[in-house]
Amino acid sequence: xxxxxxxxxxxxxxxxxxxKLMEHVFHIDDRQTxxxxxxDGVDYMPMKTWRIFLIQLLxxxxxxxxxxxxxxxxxxxxxxxxxxFGTILGGGVHDFLSGMMSEREDGASISEVVGxxxxxxxxxxxxxxxxxxxxxxxxxxxxxxxxxxxxxxxTVLNAKFWLVVILLYYLCATFLPxxxxxxxxxxxxxxxxxIMALGVAGGIIFGGYQMPELWDHFANEDPNGKPIWAxxxxxxxxxxISGFHATQSPMMARCITSEKEGRTVFYGAMVAEGIIAxxxxxxxxxxxxxxxxxxxxxxxxxxxxxxxxxxxxxGLLGPVGAVLAMIGVIAxxxxxxxxxxxxxxxxIADWFKIDQSKMTTRLFLAVPLLAVGAIxxxxxxxxxxxxxxxxxxxxxxxxxxTGGVFIHKYGYPPIASLMAAIPATFMSAVSITYFFQAPxxxxxxxxxxxxxxxxxxILFFCIFWWRTFIVHKDDINHELAAQAK
Length: 485
Description:
This protein has 19 helices and no strands.
């Protein structure tokens, strides 16, 4: 239990220290935010900080910090290290930068933000990449809950019925003003997500379960022998660092009323997600008596993590836990799916400069997006979805590199850009290595994947260093002189 409590304290301390440093480097000021300058009553909507925080938490979390943490716990308590340091040094920085860079660019979608600082070619790639990723997320988070709802209701209400219901809800959530559905429902479900995590933590701590200590299990405990590097760092995305968050943060960047809210809304929500992931990772290895027991339990239910969540909640909290588990595995993915489609609408609107103040133009984008989602939901694209894990972390890598360029241009001192560049370098190594070693990708041996990942990552960092600190050396000197005045 000691290692769990230490990890928890580190996450909390990381928020109160490293996020302050990040805020200072970014140069937070008192400029008016997009929500204040031109509220449109639809997407640019001023909201209270606590409400935006809960919406952001549910936007980025859903089932990610639960399912991902349980998958990561199959490697043992060593996953604590990735959750803690990934959140503080990577995920928090990534989410803060993606949200605040968007706020500085008038609430622009992440594809437009990346394009401005990384070039036209990357702009086009990011636009396509983002829309495809978001539609896949939205589709997946409709078919799963539909199937679960069908299993809990009379046979006449089958999966297709519930899929239609969910897609109709998605349509409403995609084009209606953000305060009508998302602003009202998300804080409620966000609180439920937090209560469920706290209940699980209390059940493990006070229920007499033995939490394996990190120093006693500092090894790869995965019974299938999957390597920790880079498999674990991709399996545990939400709860450490996730590129999907960058597609969600701009929605809240259009709602904050002060730049001072950014640290709480973006970095704070990421730390809260890290705490939730830490709790579920600890619950997985404690409730099933170790990583081997958890892996066995997952195998027994054909890797149905929803069933594992139900077993843990019901076992620790009884009937109340069962209700919370059902809310989690049904409501949480739905609340990630609807904002995925909404973000896709905003991305396309920013791409083609389509005004979204009128309902007809919003429907013009929302209806085709949901139609594509409905078609994809009829396909078995489980293999395609496996690529989401890799593409998700690749997106995080791109956004962090963009953040490094942004901080170099506007931050102080220029060397502070390494706060983004170092995690970008790490995520480059993760993404490239995973692509070469993962079964759904090239599936090469680690003797090939590891060296290729190292060489490519060094090349990326050298290019960043050269272009930032050598080619633009005069720009740095000019910025330092201006700041000195």
